[in-house]
Amino acid sequence: MSKISKFFKGGGSAASKGRRGPSPQEALARLRETEEMLSKKQEYLETRIERELAVARQHGTKNKRAALQALKRKKRYEKQLNQIDGTLSTIEFQREALENSHTNTEVLKNMGYAAQAMKKVHENMDLNKIDDLMQDITEQQDVAQEISDAISNRAAFGDEFDEDELMAELEELEQEELNKGMRDVRLPS
């Protein structure tokens, strides 16, 4: 089997992995390796393009055939470079999509765990019992408030007086004070 057919069909242990599929981490690692390899090839082609451009300039009008050959090679390298740029863009897009899918899968898995935990917590709760408990708490709060109100009110230990009598006594005191003030006033003769 040729290397290309092994690559596309998978061979040996890769075939057994292909049936169950690679893990997201394995796929991401391979995509990163491919990106790295293509980036190195980009750098190589860029230096080759510069070199061919230098050769074309060097030969210029002296040796037109050599200059044209250098420009043709430069064009081929530029074409390869454009293809690699497109391939890199596709691989980057695929890597980002895979990373997002992996993240979404983890988020959904964790949300599922949280839902199961909430279900487990709530399975021992009965809404009727909760309503009864809340009513008991409200009743006890009302009792506590009544007790607090009873304690905070002054006890009437024979301190009850007739308000009309008290008002009359206050008016009498005010009149006495006013009369005293009038005695001390000296009128001009």
From TrEMBL:
Coiled-coil residue spans: none
Keywords per UniProt: Coiled coil, Cytoplasm, Endosome, Membrane, Protein transport, Transport
GO biological process: late endosome to vacuole transport via multivesicular body sorting pathway; protein transport; vesicle budding from membrane
InterPro entries: Snf7_fam (IPR005024)
GO cellular component: cytoplasmic side of plasma membrane; cytosol; ESCRT III complex; late endosome membrane; multivesicular body
UniProt region (Disordered), positions on chain: 1-25
UniProt keyword Nucleus, yes or no: no
Localization terms from the record: Cytoplasm, Cytosol; Late endosome membrane
Superkingdom of origin organism: Eukaryota
Membrane-related topology note: Peripheral membrane protein
PANTHER family on file: CHARGED MULTIVESICULAR BODY PROTEIN (PTHR22761), CHARGED MULTIVESICULAR BODY PROTEIN 4C (PTHR22761:SF77)
Family (UniProt): Belongs to the SNF7 family.
Protein name as annotated: CHM4C protein
Source organism per UniProt: Mystacornis crossleyi
Gene: Chmp4c
